[in-house]
Amino acid sequence: MQIFEDILTIQTRTKELKASGKKIGFVPTMGYLHEGHIELIKRARDENDVVILSIFINPLQFGDNEDLDNYPKDRENDLIKAKEHGVDFVFYPTEKVMYPEPMSLSISVTKRTNVLCGRSRPGHFEGVVTVLTKLFNICQPDKAYFGQKDAQQVAVVDSLIRDFNFPIELVSVPTVREADGLAKSSRNVNLSAEERTEAPSIYEALKFGHSLTEKGEQNPLDIIKQTRQFLENKTRGKIDYIELLSYPELETVDSVNGQVILAAAVKYSKARLIDNLVFETSQHA
Ligand code: PAF
After folding, report:
1. 284 is annotated as an active-site residue
2. Per-residue model confidence as pLDDT tens digits over 101-118
3. Distance (Å) from CA 42 to ligand 1 centroid
4. Quick check: 16 pLDDT over 50?
5. For ligand 1, what atom is nearest to the CA of residue 58?
6. Could you tell me if the CB of 29 is within 6 A of ligand 1?
7. What are the start and end residues of each CATH 3.30.1300.10 domain in the chain?
8. Residue of the nearest CA to atom 3 in ligand 1?
9. What is the predicted pLDDT for the residue at 140?
10. Which one of 12, 166, 173, 248 is at 20 to 30 Å from 182 when CA atoms are compared?
11. 53 lines ligand 1 (CB under 6 A)
């Protein structure tokens, strides 16, 4: 496994690989790798000749009051895990390397963003698409792997790839969960012991909301209200949002029909957790 810290060296290498017909699978991360990331790496390993993992905590996607300073880091362990799971190249740039000077261009995300995390994290998805545009140009992947836990990110990356014609296939990999259902996240380590026991209720609430649709409930507002009540009874975390939208368009729906996402974000003292369920429904006459 090779570690690259500067752009030109890895970009030259990826150009050579592409010229020799190799398929590149790319897993962009902010490090502190957990089983969710490992799933992405395994999928990339199975489907490509070369696997590139990037580890970069992108300051552009954090707001002023967000957890950039608390974001966990463990370079040594990340590199061990990457090697263990067959990563070929790790791109590990510093902030200075990625942003040697303030950007003179910015990308604005105009759809799929004024809802869910986009609403409570202004500028977040602009930061994500900016760093991904750079990383895609640097790593030149054929396929890029993202976790479905960040379903809105998947929807926005889908727009990025299509709007800007990146010759990249987006692969969305199902959420990996702890035994009690909590979605794996690098942020889970920032939960107190008490918060950790309550946090699986986020997924329970989403499953409860989904079960209402299976029983024939079609009114999104009722589903959201009941899901919220369920969750409020189970956790003292502050509910940032519970939303039910079409997926991947992320538009409000009058009635639950077709592919939808039921998503929640909950703020704990030092971690904001998100989770979602995407499911198909069809209205019966
Ligand atoms: O999902 C993440 O970890 C980040 O948003 C990403 C895709 C690596 C961009 O910084």
Report:
1. no
2. 999 999 999 999 999 999
3. 18
4. yes
5. 10
6. yes
7. 186-279
8. 29
9. 98
10. 248
11. no
pLDDT of residue 76: 98
Residue nearest to atom 9 of ligand 1 (CA): 128
CA of 283 to the centre of ligand 1 (A): 36
Superfamily per CATH, domain 186-279: Pantoate-beta-alanine ligase, C-terminal domain (3.30.1300.10)
Contact 211, 204 (CB under 8 A): no
Residue intervals of the chain classified under CATH 3.40.50.620 are: 2-173
Residue minimizing CA distance to atom 8 of ligand 1: 29
Distance CA 175, CA 159 (A): 21
Confidence label for 283 from pLDDT (cuts 50, 70 and 90): low
Indicate the average pLDDT of the chain: 96
* CB contact at 8 A, 195 and 201: no
- The CATH number given to 2-173 is 3.40.50.620
Alpha carbon nearest to ligand 1 atom 1, residue: 29
Predicted pLDDT of residue 285: 44
Q: Quick: pLDDT tens for 247-271.
A: 999 999 999 989 999 999 999 999 9
| Ligand 1 atom closest to residue 132's alpha carbon, by position in its atom list | 9
- Counting from 1 in the atom list of ligand 1, the atom nearest the Cα of 147 is 1
Question: Which of 37, 58, 156 should be mutated for ligand 1, with most atoms under 8 A from CB?
Answer: 58
